[in-house]
Each structure stands twice: as C-alpha cells, then as structure tokens.
Amino acid sequence: MITVRISFKKKNEASYISLLDMQRVMQRVLKRSGLPVWHTLGFNPHIYMTFACPLSLGQESECECVDVKTEAEAPDFAQWKEALNAIMPAGIEVYNVEPMQMKADLIAYACYEISYPADAAPVLAQYNALESVPVEKKSKRKTKTVELKEYVPALELHEAGEWVHFPICLPASQDLTLNPSLLVAFLEEKFGLPAANANILRTKFLTADKKAFA
C-alpha cells in the first residue's frame, strides 16, 4: 500500500473553508474522482486522510497537503492531479501528487508572507525599533505569554505596487505552534493597523534543520 501526498493551494474564497469542511470537500472530491483510494475498515468505512498543520480560517496557502492511501501498484499521479483539479471547488488547485516522502510530524516551522496596503509601510517599520513584543497564546487549557521578537526580530518590508509585504517563519511543531494572527493582532493593538487589512499567505513548511518539507 502506498501513502500518496496531494499538495494543493488554497486561496481566495477557499480560504474561508474550515478544516472540518475541508475534510468533507476532500472526501467528496476523492469519491467523485473514482481514484483508487483506500477506505478504513468497519461499519462506517471512509477514506483515510491526514492533513498537515491545519490552516486558520481566512488565511491563504500555497503549500497545503493531505495524505491518502492507495492499493494501486503503479498509480498514474499525473492522472490523479488532472482528475482532482477537474472537480475541485474554486480557489483550490492541486499542484503535485506523489508518494509521501516525509511524515508530517517532521514539520517544525511554517513560513508566511503577510501583506498590507502600501501606506502601512511607515507604521510597520516601527516594529523594528521595539525591544519586546509580548503576545498571549491561548490554548484550551491555559494562556501563556510568548516573546514574539524571538521568532520575528524584524520585519523585512518589500513594497510592490499597492501592497507592502514581509516574510516570517514561525514554529509549527508539536511542542509549539504560533499563528501569524498573533503578530497581526499585536500590530493592530500597538499601531492601529486594522487586522482586516492584512492578507496572510502560507508559503512553505520547514523541518527542524530549516530544510524544505516534502
């Protein structure tokens, strides 16, 4: 049995599809495609699927992936990609299908590109002069304070047309995961930049030694 990794982009209106709904979307798309995916056993069989690092509602991504299993001996992955894209909802595009190389638990960092309207650049630049950026990370059990400057010491601003962009990489491991919305919320509270004006795009995953996750 082969574990197959389906890599896809999730943008525009699809960014508002929650993880739970995304699971339903993939179940339906895989069933409609007729691809030879493996189903779990028991009274309520369903397609085995594993998503890596759930994406927050409203955020876009160029590097989402879901793992499925197949008993096919020689899958035609180009045909898988074509069959899936033919029936995917708007905003979701499969860009690669191949055998899984790395397990999802090897992901240590998630990298993002955050964009604001260009006139926000002078305000964003003020972040770099701050010595400390404490933010509260909330979980089901507790709330703890995290020093964001340890992970985002400065914003490398790049202006392009009507937008200003900056990249960041944040922990995304089983031990610690930080959402870029923590930074966006801080920028709103500290400098008055509306969080609604920020566009968050996940661009890639990295392993603990900062190599590309595949």
Care to describe what's here?
This protein has about 210 residues and is an alpha+beta fold. The chain has 2 domains: about 1-100, Pseudouridine synthase I, catalytic domain, N-terminal subdomain (Alpha-Beta Plaits, 2-Layer Sandwich), CATH 3.30.70.580; about 105-205, Alpha-Beta Plaits, CATH 3.30.70. The protein is built from 4 helices and 10 strands. The strands form 2 sheets. Strands 1, 2, 3, 4, 5, 8, 9 and 10 form an 8-stranded mixed beta sheet that branches. A two-stranded antiparallel sheet has the order 6-7. The two termini are about 20 Å apart. This is DUF2344 domain-containing protein.
Task: Provide the fold topology.
Layout: E1 2-10, H1 19-33, E2 50-51, E3 60-70, H2 77-85, E4 92-99, E5 109-117, H3 121-125, E6 134-138, E7 143-147, E8 158-160, E9 163-171, H4 181-191, E10 199-206
Parallel strand pairs: 3-10
Antiparallel strand pairs: 1-3, 1-4, 2-3, 5-9, 5-10, 6-7, 8-9
Would you summarize the structure shown here?
The chain is α+β, with helices and mostly antiparallel strands. Helix content is 19%, strand content 32%. The protein contains four helices and ten strands; from the N terminus they run βαββαββαββββαβ.
Structure keywords:
single chain, 214 residues, alpha+beta, Alpha-Beta Plaits, 2 domains, two-stranded antiparallel sheet, 19% helix, elongated
